[in-house]
Structures are given as C-alpha cells and as structure tokens.
Amino acid sequence: MNHSTRPQKQDWDFDSLRRSYDAINDIALSELKLDLYPNQIEVITFEQMLDAYSSIGMPLMYRHWSFGKNFARDEIMYRHGLRNLAYEIVINSNPCIAYLMEENSSMMQTLVISHACFGHNHFFKNNNLFKQWTDADGILDYLEFAKGYIARCEERHGEEAVERILDAAHALMPQGVNRYPRRKALNLRDEEKRARERLEEQERNYNELWRSVPAAGARSRPSYSQTERRNLLGLPEENVLYFLEKNAPLLKTWEREVLRIVRQVAQYFYPQKQTKMMNEGCATFVHYYVMNRLHQTGFLDEGAMMEFFQSHTGAVYQPDFDHPGYSGINPYALGFGMMQDIRRVCETPTDEDRAWLPDIAGKGDWVEVLKDGWANHRDESFIRQFMSPELMRKMKFFDLHDDSKSDLVVKAIHNERGYHMVRTNLANQFDVVQNEPEIEVIDVDLDGDRRLMLQHRVYHGILAKEKDTAMVLRHMADLWGYEVTLTEVAADTDVVLKTHSAAPSRGLGA
Amino acid sequence: MNIVDRRLNPKGKSLSNRRRFIKRAREQLTEAVRKASGERSLTDMGGDDKVWIKADRLKEPQIRHSGEHGTRDYVLPGNRQFEEGDRIKRPESQGGGGGSEGSDDGEGQDDFQFALSQEEFLDIFFDDLELPDLLRKQMKSSDSFTPVRAGHAISGTISNLNLKRTMQNSLARRIALKRPHPADIAATEAEIAALLGEDDETVARRAELNVQLETHQRRSRRIAFIDPVDVRYNRFELVPQPVTSAVMFCLMDVSGSMTEHMKDLAKRFYKLLYLFLGRRYKNVEIVFIRHTHQAREVDEETFFMSTDTGGTVVSTAFEEMLRVVAARYPRDQWNIYAAQASDGDNVGMDNARVAMVLKQKILPLCQYFAYIEVREEGGREVTTDLWRTYDQLIKAGQPIAMRKVSTRSEIYPVFRDLFARDRQAQRAGHEP
Q: N or C: which end of chain B has fewer CB within 10 A?
C-alpha cells in the first residue's frame, strides 16, 4: 500500500487527550445526556496493563497465587501475539478510573475515552443492579483494607494458612453472592470499623448452637426441631460463603473475615456478570455515536475514521456458529446491535416493530428510551423486552435443542413462528441465575455428626460437573470442619438424582 | 476530569503473586524443568525457558453445570440453511454447540505453559544441590570493594545526608538554646496587634511585649534552624570483597572409540557443571583439554566438534592440566574443578601412571574431581581399565566421584547424585 493514501496513525500527547476529552464531553452531555461519575484517566504501560489484568482488573488486590497464574498465562499469550490486551480497563468506582495503554494511537485514545469514561461510566452510575449491589464510593478503600488485612494475616498466621482459606473461598465465589436484596445499600467504607466491632462481638459471645459442654444441672443440651434449627441458622441460605462465615464452628475470627472479603469481592462483581452484554453494548453504542459526531464536527479526519472503523468492526464482529473462531455470542456485537436497533425502532419503525415493541416504536426520543433501558434492566430482561424480529433476522438466530442423547433438533429459527422461542431462549441463555447451579445450604445435623447438608436444585436434568464439584466440596468441608453433603434434587419432582459428599482433609484450625 | 501518568510507577506489581504461584507449582515445575533439561539442546538451557506443567494443583475448581446431562437450548447466530425441525448429528466432541459454555476460564486447561526466567529456572534446576568446599579460596584482594554502612560522619557529600539524624540534632539544639517557636512569635505579634488602647497600662504592656518580641526575633535570627553542627552524613567504609573464582577443567577422550552419542553425554554433563558453578562463583573459567595419545588445550568448538585419531593415553591430559594450572591458575587464588569424560579406554601401561599423577598431583589440587564414564546406549556392562584404576583409588580413600552414564536422561540424576547436599558430610575432612 502506498504511504500517501494510508491514514497515518497519530501519536497522542496529554494536550490531545484533554482536547479529545473536552470534545467528547460536549457531545456526551448535550446530546446523549449522560450522567457520569467524575473521571480519572490513568495512562499505563502494557506491563502495568498485564498486572491489572491478572488481578481481575482491580488496581488494588490482595495477594494470591491464582493472580500470578493469570499473569503468567496472559503474559505468554500476549508475547506470542495470541491475544491482544484490552485497550482499556475501567473500574466501577467514584471517581471512575479508566486505564489507557500508552501504546494506543491518538484515535484509539479518543475511542477508548468515549467507550470507557463515558459509556461504561454512565452504565455503572445509572444501572439499577450496580446501584443496588455495589458501592462505587467505597470499593477502592475497601480493597485497600482487604489487601492490608490479608497481608497482616499472612504475617501472623503464615502464607500457607491464608492460602488455604483463600483457595477454599475462591472455589465458593459463585456461591458467595446474594442474588436477592435483603439489606440496605452497602457501605464498604465502614467495613473496616465493622470488622473490628464484629471481632469484639464474637469474642464476647459464643453460639448457643455449638455448645457441647452440658450446662450445670441441665439435662443434655436441648434438641431442636427442624424448624427451630432452620430459623436459628437462617436456613435455607443461598449464600454459602455467608453461611460459613457466620456459622462454621471451627473457623477462627480472621478466617471468617477472609471469607467475608472474598464474598464482598464476589458481590461487587456479580452485577458485571449479569450485565456484560448491556454494559459493553452501552459503551460501544456511546463510542460509535460520539466518534461519528466528532467526524461530522471535523474533530476527526478521514484517516482517523478509517482507523476507527477498522477497530470498531473488529470489536463487534460476530462469527457464525460454525466458524472456527466462534466462541459464543459476542456481547459487544449483540449489545451494540440491540441498541442501534432500539434507536431505529424509535425513529423509523416498521409495522412489525409497532406490533412487537409498541411501547417504544416511533417514540422519537431514543436517548430517553435507551437511558431507561440501561438503568432498569440486566441482559436477560433487556433481551426479553427489546429484542426485535428485525435484529433476530439480521443475526440469523436459531434455537438448537439438545437432550444429551439423540440428534440435535432445530426448534425455532428467525421466522414468524420462531421469534418468541428464539427470544425467550436467548434471554435464558444470558440469565446468570439459570446458568449457574442453584445451590443452597438446607440443614445441619446438630444432634449427630454436625454434617452440613446442601442441595442443588436441578432443572432440565442438568447436573453439576462431578470432578469439580467434588473438589469444591472438599474445600467446603475444610471450612466447615465436618462432613459436607450435596444432594442433587430434581426441581420439578423432588427426586434425588445424585449425592456427593466430602470430609475435611485436614483441620483448618490445626 | 483528571489525567494521571502512571507509566513511571513501579512495575512488577504482581511479582509477589508470581512468587506465590511458583511456590505453589514448585513440584510440577521441578518435574517439568528436569524433563526439559533432558530434551532441549544445551545451548538453550538456562535461557528464557518455557515449560509445560500439569495444571492439577493449579486448578481453581468451581461448581458448574455439566455438559453431559439434561436438556437445554442453545441460541446460535449465523443460520444459513436450517429450517424448523431439522435434525443435526451430534458433533463428536462435546462443546461444539456450546453457547455460553466452553469460554469459561478453567475449562480445558489441562496443561499450562509457563515461561520461567533464567534465574527461576536454574533455581529450581539446582534446588538442593551444593558445591563441596565452597568459597574456600579468595581472589587477589585488589579486585573489588563494597561500601558498607559505618555510622555517621560530620562531613560528606550531600547525597549521603542523613536527614533524620540531622533534624534530631537540630531539634535538640533548638530546645537546648531555647530558640523561640514561630508560634510564640506569632502569638506575641497577635497580642500586640490586639492592644489598641492608649491608656498607661496598655502602653506599658505593649512596650513590654515589643521588647519580648524583639528578643524572640533576635534569638531566632541568631540561633539557626539548622546549624552546620547539626548536619550528619551517612558514613560508608569500603570493605574489600572476597571475589571467588573457579576454573573448571573439562577433560575428554576424543579418540576414535568415542562416538557422537558419548560426546553429547559428556557435553551435557559439562554444561550442567558450568551452569552450576556459575551460580556459585562470580567468575568461572573453563579450560577444555582433549586427548588421544597426546593432550592439547582447545577451544569449545574444537573440543566438542572434531574427532581425532590415535591411541588413548589418559595421563597426558593430566599433565596438560598441570601445565595450564601452573601457567595460569595459581592454587591459592582459584578453586579448581575437574571433570573427566571417557569411554574408559586407556593404554594398559598408562594406568599405573594415571593413578600416580592423580593421587599425587591432581587430586590435592582440585576442589572436586568427577569422572563420568560414557557408554553406548544399551551397551554391555563391562568394567573398563580406567574404572578399575579409579575404583582402586577410591577404595584407598581418594576423593573421586565417578558414575556411568549411557542415556541422556541419566545425566541429570547422576549430576544430582554427585552434588546432593548430604554428600558433603561424606567429603568432610578431606583436604586442608
């Protein structure tokens, strides 16, 4: 290719970053009416990006070997050119911190700022799940506390002891979140104070349930009915880590606190899992809109736009199901597609759109519709609410039914008869709750051997993966201190399908 | 909006995570490193090394849905020809149709590739190995000095200023000499400013305060905040560093009976020894001596690559070695190691001489003498002349380490065997 026709990649400097930011800011506030946390942009090198990558994207994290493993893997992939690093990492905090890589060209920095500092930032601040479950004001302080706390534990109790607890807690992370609200908004800033108070409280009290020495003059200890016992222990409990933190008889206070830390981190990330598609869609929609407007106003030249389209189309590329590069539905592609489609339906609806999406068809004010969607939905409900037949046709979605035995059957395709089913099952596919085994603590054998009983409610006959489950149960038994059993029960018939159990490998308290 | 340049922040934030990870994977890494040492060519070894390790202990299990049971629906993009009701053969391996599956972390990671730095590699590689009689000799003292902290000094360069000590002195002096505190002066000034009246009492008070203020100000002018007598510098003393050097003599028979395979084995052994010495000594030199019926000092290339014809007279190599030692490596300045590789052939009449030279000259000179008898793979078990000669010396209490090696994979175990830590005890007492 001739050099004169090829758009030159421009280097950025701090002035150009500021100019880009201001230009984007005008458009984002006046036209998209975004509502943002204050932004903090941090420029980092690729090595620092790898560092941030390996500790689940957070600038501060406690120490654990698994982050070292992530780093080793990412580093190899990166150095071999198998994987590109993300152009940016953005943190749901107030102020909203975005990391930009120094290697990015000037255009890329503009793209990334509009994507992260405006798109993601707005989503973090306004989406209901984030508002309800995460504390953007406190997260960095909390992680600072967590890092320090765990480092102090390592000094006092040895790296190995801490590692054992963390390994076990990490294994239970998916079972360490509350899926349904029951408390007031979190305030992570106060966690440190509360940690201290909890410790004092626990030292003052002991749990009546675990008393094994008969009280003077009393008969044996009281035997509780099942209902009483369940009430005392707050069962059933879906948050296994919470249950262990509060009730595991043999854990030491610092061990409980470590479980709590892991649980808080899991909870903080839970909304991200549920809104991955929307979050990326929102950011991609915002950067696409902003970049085009910047081109119209003359801020970006043709060369920069060419470069932009190249990287934008790369990000929203959706390989077909039989393409070797297919690895699931690309959340960027689907999210961006849906949001562009919503704008189309608002502005130029067809009769079909009027029939399928009567609330928004022809409404005109697409900014409000989108902002409302971003605020009040998660991936699953967003698809149920806004997926149009037009987009299903465009993506050529079809529904493949698998009964694990006979041939696969195409149950529905993108036609009049199939739209409903495709949409419903696509929404289910994005439903985190349906895609993770539903596990609850149901009972404890208080009179006998103190066995902890858990239940997996099995839908559609989908059992838990055996080998991993066994490993997780071992971790759980180590935390609990006694035997743990998990029964897999069919949700519709209550028939027991399978039972796993594990005994503690060695006493954690030892 | 706030832009922060973090590029100059310290790198390697995750180094301690990496250390934890290596510790965790130590067992597998050790195995992988040892395996790698048998497979890869010697020039690669100790470079930037990638090893594959099993992910067993590195697995992070979580309870997930199994892909093998139950009924489910996948919604997939990119339908071209399917109609409702079409049946598709189940793909051979599971996961082809997985919508949200298969992309999970922790899935399908049976093996794990991992790049070790040279330091880490060798650390694991030579774990538990120890050099006998380490660091016994010292290099001529002229070589190097290391500055060592040695208290404080009242003179020095500004870069060595000890701020804490200086400020302590300053504070002590200011208290001792009653230098007025700036806050006191400010208070006096404020009080004067507040005295507005013109009655006698006020005027008198004001005069009194003015005097007081002036005294204060004079004192604080006279008594410096930091006086030259306060200043302290960190003092360093130059301590001569014992620089340890080692020379390693590689002796090899290159007569026609030595095959390429045998030389490869020898080369591997030498390489290991070199890497190992390099980790213990700052300065390691190698001398290559090859021999047939006559011996010559050569460079590495010639040593390994070219063959020679002629008989085999082992003692010539020892004599060449003695010559080199006398010429270049005074005994009091060098740690001398010798490793000999041979197929065990020697001219019958030379054996007595070999025994004599070894016992009287070579062994007293060396920290360590190792003999590796290399053989063809699957060769018959024979006791060679040289082996028998050395065996007699060993029985007579001479410190010779000797082993037989016939395959590549034996090299490392033999090497470990020779340098395992507990061997030291055995060797204690030998040589002053």
A: C
Inter-chain residue contact B11 with A38, CB threshold 8 Å: no
**What is this structure's pTM?**
0.71
Residue in chain B closest to A421 (alpha carbons) equals B75
Whether A391 contacts A397, CB under 8 Å: no
Q: Where are the domains of chain A?
A: 14-127+275-308, 316-320+330-434, 436-502
Among residues A450, A444, A394, A400, the alpha carbon closest in space to that of A422 is found at A400
Per residue in A427-436, pLDDT (tens digit) is 999 998 888 8
B20/A159 Cβ within 8 A? yes
pLDDT per residue over B68-112, tens digit each?
Answer: 888 888 999 988 888 888 888 877 654 444 433 333 333 444 566
Task: Say yes or no for a CB contact (<8 Å) between B6 and A48.
Answer: yes
- Residue A120 — very low, low, confident or very high, per pLDDT cuts 50/70/90? very high
pLDDT tens digits, residue range B290-306?
Answer: 888 888 888 877 777 77
For residues A263 and A146, the answer to whether their CB atoms sit within 8 Å is no
User: Which of 293-352 (A) contact B at CB < 8 A?
Assistant: 318-323, 326-329
Q: B83 contacts in A (CB within 8 Å)?
A: 410, 413
B413-417 own/partner pairs: CB under 8 Å, 24+ apart: B414/B269, B414/B372, B415/B129, B415/B269, B415/B272, B415/B273, B415/B276, B416/B128, B416/B129
**Does CATH place domain B245-427 in 3.40.50.2300?**
no
Residue for token digits 């409302």?
A372
How many contacts does A have with B, using Cβ atoms within 8 A? 267
Q: Where are the domains of chain B?
A: 23-56+112-125, 153-235, 245-427
**Predicted local confidence at residue B144, as pLDDT:** 62
